[in-house]
Amino acid sequence: MTWKIRPNRPEDAMQLSDIYLTVRRQAFTWVDPGKFHREDFSAHTNGEVVSVCEAPNGKIAGFISIWAADDFIHMLYVLPEFQGKGAGTALLQSLPAWPKHRYRLKCLVNNRRAKAFYLAHGFQVTGRGASTEGDYEELSFAPASAE
């Protein structure tokens, strides 16, 4: 499948909010779904750079948000119907200077599918912590030439 990655636009807000809500409720089964709200997307991405992944038919398949100052991938969410089809990989590959640049993120321990995705893309566990949604691992991507 050919993916189009582009900057988010104001008119994407509702769709991105829906993706964020839907995927969190589906993936974070150990968290009360009532704790997730549509408004969370705008609050949680404030000040971040958000890119959108479009499927060939123009439907928004997912998004990635980064806190650029720290090279921190805050979110990468893909609708269930597009998971496992390359949308997440396309979003990672759209990052500035990927794969020659260091990036890091936090992945909830219980989110095994996401962790497997990141490990398959060259991330390594470099730390641990706890959040209101559960324990997490910090994952870091270090280009082979930087090691």
Structural class, by secondary structure, is alpha+beta
Strand content: 25-35%
Separation, N- and C-terminal Cα atoms: 33 Å
**CATH fold descriptor:** Aminopeptidase
Principal-axes shape call: globular
Mean of residue pLDDT? Answer: 94
* Count of individual beta strands: 7
Strand ordering within the main sheet: 1-2-3-4-5-7-6
CATH domain class: Alpha Beta
Lay out the secondary structure.
Layout: E1 4-7, H1 13-27, H2 40-44, E2 49-54, E3 60-67, E4 72-78, H3 87-93, E5 103-108, H4 112-120, E6 123-131, E7 134-141
Parallel strand pairs: 4-5
Antiparallel strand pairs: 1-2, 2-3, 3-4, 5-7, 6-7
Model description:
The chain has four helices and seven strands; from the N terminus they run βααβββαβαββ. It has a single domain, classed as Aminopeptidase. The mean pLDDT is 94. Strand 3 and strand 4 form a beta hairpin. A seven-stranded mixed sheet has the order 1-2-3-4-5-7-6, with helices on both faces. It has helices at residues 13-27, 40-44, 87-93, 112-120, and strands at residues 4-7, 49-54, 60-67, 72-78, 103-108, 123-131, 134-141. The protein is an alpha+beta fold.
